[in-house]
């Protein structure tokens, strides 16, 4: 080694390319083997881990859905009894919302936001590692409880008094409520990271109007998470207290109120839908230009639409409570605000249509998923307008019409774009492409399977079929259509299975991708597939919203960062002018240990309130170990 | 248009018998909701079709060549988006107004409404006909009768958890919430039996919590009412006598009331006229002697989790009880 | 992709404070989360007031003595807290050490007073919804207080080690001071709710 390399403050400026990569790879590396697995703070590794776990939960939740369809395929079927059925639909809903949809959208953000912004790691990378372990623990708590026949059985919105101490004795509901705490901690942690990363770690020159639209979507979503999730944390804490120490928040006979739960739950629960949907719209806005060979039409309109959806999402919660007998005037206001969200949603649709109109389509798998999204989501959005009307809602609320509606919005509006995104960004996770041929088959199966499974549910709901019934009697005319739905759901399940098969196979034997296989415009395609641990050898400098398309043959970059310690660039909030060379924390076991301590405390508190007291000691030790300075280069200034 | 809509319903949704359906309205409130439903559905279908057609055209057309043409196409697009947003605002505002007007028309009041107090239990319904004359009050369960052509106001309450009362053929649903008072009004236009079902998840047997609304001409309703006010029918013959004795001496009377006997419990449905109802166990089984016997013999396998325990009875005792219950018309 | 170097960042400072610091923004985000939690808890309090026939049920409001003492300590503590933040900005190790020890002690005082405050509420958490929400609000704030005091203690310990004299640590002290202001600010509406509304 030369003397220059031993220099503690070695810069990238004069290093030749090969040496630069070697030095950076050493500085930013994750140790191999198990140690690396538990200590890594690389946002890409954590994100991929998050995505795989979320998809595992999707498949578990899907198996539950198939069990429900089996039971409902004919009247008075005795395959699954009411006790098990109620656990199944509760865990299906809770898994899909809290363990799949929200985490997977945030995980894609963790993967892509730093890459799209041209930075080397997410802000607070140890918090990011902690977030994953907490999320995993929450998911395991729910599913282990289910396997032990202790699965929650009161529905994913757990209305009191049914979920209260009197009507749900035992630990089932406590497990649900603590699972909520786990997943909310995980989601809040990621939101803080994403907000700070977007505000402070953008590549030089990436002004607000040059931020990729997926990043905008993740940013708005994270703010919605920050403002919405405290409501469910508060609500579920109050529920646990009612159940564990005898408080009376929800007990009407002691001055509490059953509707307080519904207000708090839906104050979170409605924005939750947009926490899932907004990232999906961001994915579409970021992918569509690649597949029509032109920049997105109406960038500013799309950003404003996302911001206004984020804001409006807080003014809609009462539309889940139209049948609870609230004052009519208030309900009419919420009808108006619920319908008003159709305007920004429409703006997005119209901008995408214009983008396709002005461009030249490239018929690849992600684009086909986007077309499936249009067909399905627009329909789900329009039935959303129907349930937003108070009088109509009194007929369709809590029926299969609503089941159909929200599956159209969530599967059509979020899962289809997500599958497009997985296919599209697969090279950035694995370095390989997914099979185009298998991809087309899975689009076809998913699209047809989904629509034939869920469209008839609208009609079942109008014919009077309530949701959450474990069976129905012979004299009700729902048997034929339910059988049809159950048969079609097999095609839908096969579509998901084929997608998974394609992904697993392509991870090993897919075609090698190269840096920019789709010919896309944003910064994540300016580095290799998969990106190195440090993402970018030198920090890119940006002067447009589509840097790769607009920069010609070579990428302008900035030099001067240290290669001997983990260093990244902090820029100003509005104009992304370089501000500080900041260090980024290195690998650490403490987030994992803190997560274990937190898990013990939270699981213990299901059984005794004292767990919060004694459990906080190991948590405190974990956090001190996490933050205590170690004299590494990253601690120095 | 009004006359076309039922046709449309029938055509599109063939096979729907209207037993418990929002698409087969049988009263003015349900009519209004049904009209509103088709207004929304047709509007939304047209919007969806328009978006799909534009998408199809966008996919099939050849993009403009040359800078000038592209510029022009972009200007056109911007204008088209503006127009589409304006159209969205107009449609959404129109639907909001339509929905507001419908709310007004269905919350109509009338002085002479028949008032029924309905209370939800896990998993059955208790109905109280409250008459200004105290001797005309009575309590029944799981089946209510209403006169056709007269406004009926249902006052809703819940004994344990949240339930929701929903007779789709007559009106939308309204929740029954512990600690809160709600109400709902409808009029039945024609005689018939309309099925209602609990619409808010309420625990193990949420699926088996039905109620039947029997609409009948005012004279028939008055006859039914008079019969309900009366005490329970006397047993005929030794078997029915024995049935009544068992009902009073075994656990039955601790939960159920049979007016005119010693059975005066209030945890389960009032059985004074159980034999007159079309169904037992909240809509689970048609009322026959056989189904009554089966239900009493083993309620937990018919309705798992139900609060009705199995009371051990010999075969003869079961015969006697079912004979007596059938008598309670 | 080929690269061309167009700018050099070597001269940038190695640590920023305030809006140039990631942890400052992170602290802000966490304060937003917790502030929302307080807002919703106070919202729930007001909601329960609105459905109650009588508030407090039974008519005995909490004894204001201890709560007012806590408020006084909080208000007074703002002055040394701001001074500490300024000294940290000036990177004056000696003054920062004095300041952080002072703030550690000042943090313990309201914590000790809290014990008496809980017993002066005149209502148990399991008597009725009023008792429940009152205990919840006070408990929520106490949790924040405990967290901040523990954090201050750890930071005080760090400042007396060799890691103390470091820009990053001074930044941590400033963020900790910011958080103390937050704990103080959230107390004021909670105080108004707990002691004001039952007397209306």
Automatic annotation (TrEMBL), chain A:
Pathway assignment: Energy metabolism; oxidative phosphorylation
Reactions the enzyme catalyzes: 4 Fe(II)-[cytochrome c] + O2 + 8 H(+)(in) = 4 Fe(III)-[cytochrome c] + 2 H2O + 4 H(+)(out)
EC number: 7.1.1.9
UniProt KW keywords: Cell membrane, Copper, Electron transport, Heme, Iron, Membrane, Metal-binding, Respiratory chain, Translocase, Transmembrane, Transmembrane helix, Transport
The keyword Nuclease is assigned to this record: no
Coiled coil: none
Domain of life: Bacteria
Membrane topology: Multi-pass membrane protein
Residue ranges of the TM segments: 47-68, 88-117, 129-148, 175-199, 211-240, 260-284, 296-318, 338-358, 365-388, 400-426, 438-460, 480-501, 613-629
Protein localization: Cell membrane
Endpoints of the signal sequence: none
Cross-referenced InterPro entries: Cyt_c_oxase-like_su1_dom, Cyt_c_oxase-like_su1_sf, Cyt_C_Oxase_1, Cyt_c_Oxase_su1_BS, Cyt_c_oxidase_su1_bac
Record-annotated Cytochrome oxidase subunit I profile domain positions: 22-543
NCBIfam families: CtaD_CoxA (TIGR02891)
Function: Cytochrome c oxidase is the component of the respiratory chain that catalyzes the reduction of oxygen to water. Subunits 1-3 form the functional core of the enzyme complex. CO I is the catalytic subunit of the enzyme. Electrons originating in cytochrome c are transferred via the copper A center of subunit 2 and heme A of subunit 1 to the bimetallic center formed by heme A3 and copper B.
Record family assignment: Belongs to the heme-copper respiratory oxidase family.
Protein known as: Cytochrome c oxidase subunit 1
Source organism: Pararoseomonas baculiformis
Gene designation: ctaD
TrEMBL record, chain B:
Coiled coil feature spans: none
CDD domains: CuRO_CcO_Caa3_II (cd04213)
Main location: membrane
One Pfam family here: COX2
Keywords: Copper, Electron transport, Heme, Iron, Membrane, Metal-binding, Respiratory chain, Translocase, Transmembrane, Transmembrane helix, Transport
Residues in Cytochrome oxidase subunit II copper A binding domain copies: 111-227
InterPro entries from the UniProt entry: CcO_II, CcO_II-like_C, Copper_CuA, Cupredoxin, CuRO_CcO_Caa3_II, Cyt_c-like_dom, Cyt_c-like_dom_sf, Cyt_c_oxidase_su2
Residue stretches making up the Cytochrome c domain: 238-329
Chemical reaction(s) catalysed: 4 Fe(II)-[cytochrome c] + O2 + 8 H(+)(in) = 4 Fe(III)-[cytochrome c] + 2 H2O + 4 H(+)(out)
Entry's EC annotation: 7.1.1.9
Known role: Subunits I and II form the functional core of the enzyme complex. Electrons originating in cytochrome c are transferred via heme a and Cu(A) to the binuclear center formed by heme a3 and Cu(B).
PANTHER family xrefs: CYTOCHROME C OXIDASE SUBUNIT 2 (PTHR22888:SF9), CYTOCHROME C OXIDASE, SUBUNIT II (PTHR22888)
Family of the protein in this entry: Belongs to the cytochrome c oxidase subunit 2 family.
Protein name: cytochrome-c oxidase
Organism of derivation: Pararoseomonas baculiformis
High-level lineage: Bacteria, Pseudomonadati, Pseudomonadota, Alphaproteobacteria, Acetobacterales
